Amino acid sequence: MNEDTEHQTSHIFGIRYMTENFIQGILDDASEIKQNPSKYAEALKGKILSLAFWEASTRTRLSFESAMLRLGGKTLGFSSQAGTSIEKGESLSDTITMLAGYSDCIVLRHPLRGSCKLAAKIADKYGVPVISGGSGSQEHPTQALLDIFTIQEYHHRLSGLNVGIVGDLRYSRTISSLLFALGKFGRNTIYYLSHPSLHLQDELVYDLESTDLEMHKATNLAEIISSLDVLYVTRLQKERFPDPMLYNKVKESYQLRPDLMKAAKEDLIIMHPLPRVDEIPYAIDRFPQAKYFEQAKNGVYTRMAVLNRLIH
Ligand code: CP
Fold it and tell me: What are the two backbone dihedrals, phi and then psi, of residue 283, each rounded to the nearest 5 degrees?
């Protein structure tokens, strides 16, 4: 669980704080739930999950909702500030205090760095766990859990893998969490490919130095695709670009074109946290290596495992 001893309740705000044992336990639980979903149909009967989303989401919010319903629990919450008293100026801390009184667990998506830790500190007083549903451009821990669950399902291992990461590596919280997750499971080789303005942040590269990840900069997809076990593509996040002109300039540079697939291994898996825009054309969907929709579905089983562990 989180190695942050400041909190007494178990919260999830970053993969970097989780032990390998805790992560493996979640993956094992998710696999068991996927095989025997009916066994868990009443596991959280009588419990309520709050979904507090300050930012847009389809997969994270709805797969958490689906997970809670499939566990026999109920959900409440909001999907934007509109229609809540946040519009009247209510603070994050007061909103979390309210939700801690109304529910047994809170999933939070918020744009500000540190928002999840603050929420956890407040909810801790009420014994209510907080789970990050993606916080700023820092971390998206449950996305990383479903990502490595999918990788393990196809490759039956989480080490000795060649993983290409492509697109927006600077502003993608998904990439940060995935790298921390892969870094906990031994030696993996990462080929990173992005526009110079979207390279991995220095702070992240520094934090990853303590892991066994071998990092290689790639210059184009054609150069690396034949050696990859996993190709993880990300969207250029227009909303996080400081300059819209720059977004328009680089958006098509890192597209996975169908002709590139000729060199791909049969057991390559193509992943994407979604939503996609231009970086994976629809023509790629017909390749057996395209796994991004299965990956998104695995979010339900992984999040069922997380909720089942955290809510008592
Ligand atoms: N992968 C992901 O976080 O998608 P949403 O933004 O739709 O939740």
Answer: -60, -25
Query: Could you tell which of 51, 54, 55, 57 is best to mutate to test the pocket of ligand 1, judged by most ligand atoms within 8 Å of the CB?
Result: 57
Q: How many residues does the chain have?
A: 312
Please give the sequence-ordered ranges of beta strands (E in DSSP) within 143-268, or none if there are none: 162-166, 189-193, 214-217, 230-233
148 and 183 in contact (C-beta within 8 Å)? no
What distance in Å separates the CA atoms of residue 99 and residue 238, rounded to the nearest whole number?
A: 31
List the CATH code of the domain at 141-296.
3.40.50.1370
| Category of 139 on φ-ψ map: left (φ > 0), alpha (ψ -120 to 50) or beta | beta
Look up residue 15 and give its amino acid: I
> What are phi and psi for residue 24, nearest 5 degrees?
-60, -35
Closest ligand 1 atom, CA of 134? 3
7 is catalytic: no
Q: Are 116 and 92 in contact (CB under 8 A)?
A: no
| All CATH 3.40.50.1370 domain ranges in the chain, comma separated | 3-138+298-310, 141-296
Which pTM was predicted? 0.94
Distance, CA 275 to ligand 1 centroid (Å)?
7
- Whether residue 111 is preceded by a cis peptide bond, meaning omega within 30 degrees of 0, is no
Interval 276-293: pLDDT, tens = 988 999 999 999 999 999
CA distances from 140 to 1, 11, 79, 175, 216 (A): 15, 13, 17, 8, 23
**Each residue of 169-196: pLDDT tens digit?**
988 899 999 999 999 998 999 999 998 8
Q: How far is CA 84 from CA 52, 100, 114, 158, in A?
A: 11, 16, 22, 42
* CATH entry 3.10.350.10 includes domain 3-138+298-310: no
Residue 150 annotated in active site = no
Segment 122-141, tens digit of pLDDT: 999 999 999 999 977 789 99
238 as an active site residue: the answer is no
- For position 21, what pLDDT does the model report? 95
